[in-house]
Amino acid sequence: MSRELLRRPRFAPFFWTQALGAFNDNLFKNALLLLMTFVVIEQRGWDTGIVNNLAAGLFILPFLLFSAWGGLLADRLDKQRLIVRLKWLELATMSVAAGALIFEAWELLLALLFMMGTQSALFGPVKYAILPQHLKPDELVSGNAWVELGTFLAILIGTLAAAALMALGGELARWALSASLVSLSLLGVMAAGKIPPAPSASPGPVPWRPLSGSIAVMREGLSNRRLRWALLGISAFWFLGASYLTQLPAYARDIVHGAEGATSALLAAFAIGIGLGSLACERVSRGRLETGLVPFGALIIFAGGLDLALRPALAEAQMATPLIELLGIAGFWRMWVDLGVIGFGGGLYIVPLYTLLQIRSPEDHRARMIAANNVLNALLMVLSAGAGILVLGVMGRDIPDFLLLLSLISGLIAVVCMLRDPRPFLRLNIFILIHLMYRLHLKGRWRIPAEGAALVVCNHVSFMDALILGGASPRPLRFLMDAEIYHSPWLKWFFRIAGAIPVDSSRKDPAGVRRSLEEVGKALREGEVVMIFPEGKLTRDGEVGRFRRGLELILARDPVPVIPMALGGLWGSWFSHGGGPAFAKFPRRLRGRVELCVGRTFDPVGTKAVELEEAVRDLHRKATRLARSR
């Protein structure tokens, strides 16, 4: 993950503002939970179940009531000024909380949970809506990865800090907690003041419509076909995450047989996994949106969750075994790794979805779409609590059964994602395969546009060319290929999923050529990227051949930007005709060096095939030289 962003004034202050806020939220919530459980309930004789559920409800309720209003505020006001005001609200809330702690005003502390929930609900939309204004398009994935990493590490540190402060006991614990809450809020106000301005794209009045506004933004978000699946996917993550985290204390007690430290250790595994998954997402994406990581992440959650559900209780541990003793038990480490794997899959899964939501939301409605997401998240988190009550309470099943259900749900999510849009997932798997087979180096990949139609032209060296280009491209490619190969009985399903367009020579099937060109035109008009090999056949001498006239026919019908590319290092490989016919010679090397060079984009108006041919020749010479020099 690029650490450069953390040194940029346009990102670093915001990062620390949101991280400090998440830390303070969780410090307050967890400390209050410990106080209620071990101090207040004994003093007042309150019911544990009622108090804990009341606390959870007081924090969640504002997300249902005020998220939509927060989205409207973020769309109509300067986002930096709104963040500063919200941090002042946090400071005021924590100052009152500090007084309530010192004077043991427990009812007031519960009411302040509602205020903290309100501040978080109003901050949520602006938190993600401000990023596209301050970050470049190729920095969004990295920015979101840092935000997710910072958030979950802040949750972990806040949870551990709450336990550490409460361990001080009595009045000392309350004073230490009060000072921490106010100090963190002050640091947040200072960091927020350094965030650059982020003016509204549609300034105007902000009507007060909390409940009706929530219903309206939900309807608007879910009716938007481009956003619906991102909203549902993010909310599914929070359903799973809330379910796992809610059951951690009971799992640590009944299956791990551990003391309080076991819950913190398992939570640490989950948070570290989220951070590593976010890091891996940024590394694989290389600044571009990789939606193929979403089903990949869901599959990893499924695998980790399945293994966790099937783990038997630790026979070596007795009830309330200290953490130091658990660390010597192999079975505990297996559980720890499983939760880390679940978190890792979550990081891969959630970062692309948040980036997708930011990119596809209209600028003047972006915060409201994120608010719709927050409302839906809150509903799914409430649903997760209901699912836990139904399975564990009404149905009388045990925790491993519930974890198995969660694993199956994540597997179902992966299948739905792959069936709905298989090409990004297929492209990602091809990307992994290609990097296992070759030492692939890319030059100029950023020239492929993040959105919109484009035509890619490349030299044709080997039978692996289409796979290499498809795996290297940040977007799924539609590519023309020989009809005879396309209709191979064993591979046709693969080519169909990959979006290949079969084409035959005009002498064999003139009507088929017209159909192929119509399919290419349709793909371009729908904003896709189409790749062709204008030579029409594999090279026999390793050089770039003459381009055929079909290229100019395509551009005449659908003038779109043209991106020339060239491959170097594949001539002489088993899949090429170098040194003998392809597949008819013994492979001479493993993980050969391959260079892919992307040239400047050509305007379609007035561009001739001969100009593109010369551009590809120049790129081919450069790619060949680079492949030989590495």
TrEMBL record:
Membrane topology, as annotated: Multi-pass membrane protein
Record's keyword terms, sorted: Cell membrane, Membrane, Transmembrane, Transmembrane helix, Transport
Organism domain of life: Bacteria
One Pfam match: Acyltransferase
Ranges where the Phospholipid/glycerol acyltransferase domain occurs: 454-570
Spans through the membrane: 21-41, 53-74, 143-166, 229-250, 262-281, 293-315, 335-357, 378-396, 402-419
Gene3D superfamilies, sorted: MFS general substrate transporter like domains
UniProt xrefs under CDD domains: LPLAT_AGPAT-like, MFS_MefA_like
SMART domains, sorted: PlsC
Cellular localization per UniProt: Cell membrane
Protein name: MFS transporter
Species name: Cobetia amphilecti
